[in-house]
Every structure is written in C-alpha cells, then in structure tokens.
Amino acid sequence: MSTAVYPGSFDPITNGHLDIIWRASKLVEKLYVAVLVNRSKKYMFTAEERVNFIKESVKDIHNIEVVSYDGLLVDFCREKGANAIFKGLRAITDYEIEVQMALMNKRLENDVETVLLVSAVDHSFISSSIIKEVAFYGGDIAGLVPEHVKDAIIEKWRNKD
Ligand code: PNS
C-alpha cells in the first residue's frame, strides 16, 4: 500500500494547502496530513484547532487522515509506514528551504522520498501569514481559505485585546 505524508504548520490551512492535499491524495492510497511543529514559528491556533480546521475541509476525501505530531517528520513517517513526503512549491523562495529540509530528511531516513508539487498559479501568492495579516487589517480573504477558517481568523483577531 502506498502511504505518504503531507506535513506542515497549517496555521491555518489555506486553499493553496487544500489544492496540494487534493492532488497528493490522488497519487497514493493513504495520505496523512500531519500538523507538525516548526520551532521557528509562533502559532495563532492550537494544534487541535488546526487539525479540526483541516478535518472539516477534507471530510469528503476518504483516503486522508489528519493528525498532529510533536517530533521529527521522519519518525512520523516510520511510525505510519510512509515512504513519501509531499510538499508544495509556490515560488523560488520556497525552493531553498524545501531542498534543505528534503536533504536533511533524506539524511535522517534514506528510504523516505520528498515529492515537490508545484502550486497552482492561483494559489502561488497565498501563505497563512499573509492571509492572517490581511485579515488583521480588515482586508478581504474570501476565497483564499475555507469559509470556516475565514470566520475563525476574523473571530480570533476580534477577541485579541
Ligand atoms: O508549514 P511549515 O511551517 O513550512 O512546515 C515545516 C514543517 C512543520 C514541515 C517542519 O518544520 C517539520 O518537518 N517539523 C517537524 C520536525 C522536523 O522533522 N524537523 C526537521 C525538518 S528537516
């Protein structure tokens, strides 16, 4: 059985992430969407909230499981018997960090391959951080994130002192 992982911070999930999830899920029998910890980031949403946003967004795709994990991505892959990691590549700016992570993950676990999927043009400018910033200043983020995520971002900013 072909099993793969699509990892990320997903703080929160965007329509760009969802496009990659949808395309990756068609290439394997089982896809884990893993909410992992990126030590260089501070999160707006808890891991549980981020998992729930994704679960709600992918409930119609039947070969997907959404989980959170605090540890090395390659250890998660070993635990789940996954031999591929999917990542989205939006622009050349993503390339450097993605190659760095792919080479480190390969060094840690030679049997796990990183597969880079090029983001759809419509999504190549979307990032969770830019969406949160636009929403903070009252800009329109409709169509860039699922509706339930849009509402949660707006609510979060509203309740921030
Ligand atoms: O969405 P992000 O923040 O770009 O995702 C980065 C993430 C979470 C996939 C990366 O930081 C990660 O894999 N974290 C888990 C810990 C780990 O394995 N670190 C070494 C990566 S080379």
Describe the structure.
- It is a single chain.
- The chain is α/β, with parallel strands linked by helices and 161 residues long.
- The protein has one domain (3-158): 3-Layer(aba) Sandwich (Rossmann fold).
- Helices cover 43% and strands 19% of the residues.
- Strands 3-2-1-4-5 form a five-stranded parallel β-sheet, with helices on both faces.
- β1, α1 and β2 form a beta-alpha-beta unit.
- The mean pLDDT is 96.
Notable features of this structure?
alpha/beta, binds 4'-phosphopantetheine, five-stranded parallel β-sheet, 5 strands, Rossmann fold, 161 residues, 43% helix, single chain
Concise description?
The chain is built from six helices and five strands.
Helix-strand layout with pairing:
Blueprint lengths: L2 E6 L6 H11 L4 E7 L10 H11 L6 E6 L3 H8 L3 E6 L2 H17 L4 E6 L9 H9 L10 H13 L2
Parallel strand pairs: 1-2, 1-4, 2-3, 4-5
